[in-house]
Design goal:
Aspartate Aminotransferase, domain 2; seven-stranded mixed beta sheet; single chain; 15 helices; alpha/beta; Aspartate Aminotransferase, domain 1; four-stranded antiparallel beta sheet
């Protein structure tokens, strides 16, 4: 019963096969191979327009490069207070970009549009001593396992664009959000006002496959120099491209995400009907958060369930009893129905 993280899961068989198939022979390095070009074409097909694609080693690299592409002197990027960009990347975006990140709040891991409007008032009109807001980052799916609707993305992106800001989407769990919304990649990104996308596949069955997708290909030259200078350029990038080739083939990426989401849905149902724990909040993607007391947590861990404690948002923390905490379960492409059933039996 391993629900620790989708990062803990291995690689899907189709990804492993593709890596083995492309291991022999030779291919041009640094993104110049035929396979790299074919994968870029596939990205363009998926997003229904010309895009620039930069393969990178980690989601942190993609996020930091995206913010740096949008940065200007005195620049400020804005994200949700619980965003990975804020909480879990050790200041990488600030380090690379030379700017700073400010956060705004919102229930369920999503930026509240009223809170964003209030925050942006500080920078409208611009005031030299405050700095200037240059980028908005939205995490889709959020760190709370929730998903922005298309209308919510459009609303938040519209606020940012009115101030001339770039809009970034951290899509570490992009496929999970896409499946949850039953939307197209184009609808959830550039058609809703997104300029730059951190496209994650590592959490959804790949070995190591992340990309920065630029919906304005004119940004490519700047982004490529930044990628090289920051040490994020793969030499044998065809091995990342090979993963994406298999990931997209036959809609595998959506199948893997749909399975993870379905397993998470079963976990939510088990928690909702159980007597020992309760849902911390609703969710739509592959992360599930529940509240339990310390005794129950210990029994679940001793029974073989693997999960992590989670820092609760303030609106949830205020409702916890003294001996209670919030915990996170993450379903992945590798999560099985028997695992979920075993956990359900423990909390019933």
């Amino acid at each position: 019963m391993n629900f620790a993280s989708d990062n803990w899961a291995g690689a899907a068989p189709q990804i492993v096969e593709a890596l083995g198939r492309h291991a022999a022979g030779f291919g041009a390095a640094y993104g110049a191979s035929e396979l790299d070009a074919a994968v870029t074409e596939k990205f363009c097909e998926i997003f229904e327009r010309e895009v620039a694609v930069l393969l990178v080693p980690t989601g942190t690299a993609a996020n930091a490069l995206a913010i740096t592409c949008a940065m200007k002197p005195g620049g400020i990027a804005i994200a949700h207070r619980g965003a990975h960009l804020v909480e879990d990347e050790c200041g990488a975006a600030e380090f690379l970009s030379g700017g700073r990140i400010e956060w705004v709040d919102g229930v369920g891991g999503r930026i509240d549009p009223v809170a964003l409007a209030g925050h942006l008032q500080r920078y409208d009109p611009p005031f030299l001593h405050h700095g200037r807001a240059v980028a908005l980052s939205l995490t889709q799916a959020s760190e709370a396992g929730t998903v922005y609707s298309l209308d919510e993305i459009r609303e938040l992106a519209g606020q940012a664009r009115r101030l001339g800001m770039s809009v970034h989407m951290d899509g570490a769990r992009f496929a999970n959000a896409l499946v949850a919304l039953d939307a197209s990649p184009a609808q959830m990104t550039w058609q809703a006002g997104i300029d730059l996308l951190s496209f994650g596949a590592t959490k959804n069955g790949c070995w190591c496959a992340e990309a920065l997708v630029l919906f304005d290909p004119a940004l490519r030259e700047t982004a490529e120099y930044l990628r090289k200078r920051s040490g994020f350029l793969f030499s044998k990038s065809r091995f990342v491209a090979a993963q994406f080739e298999a990931y997209f083939a036959g809609g595998l990426w959506l199948e893997l995400a749909a399975h993870a989401n379905a397993m998470a849905g079963q976990l939510r149902a088990a928690i909702s009907s159980g007597k020992r724990v309760r849902l911390a909040w609703p969710g739509q993607a592959n992360e599930v958060f529940f509240v339990a007391n310390r005794e129950t947590e210990m029994k679940l861990q001793q029974a073989g369930a693997r999960f992590h404690e989670w820092q609760p948002p303030h609106e949830v923390a205020a409702k916890l009893a003294e001996n209670e905490a919030v915990f996170r379960l993450v379903a992945s492409f590798a999560t099985s129905a028997p695992e979920v059933a075993a956990f359900a039996a423990l909390v019933s």
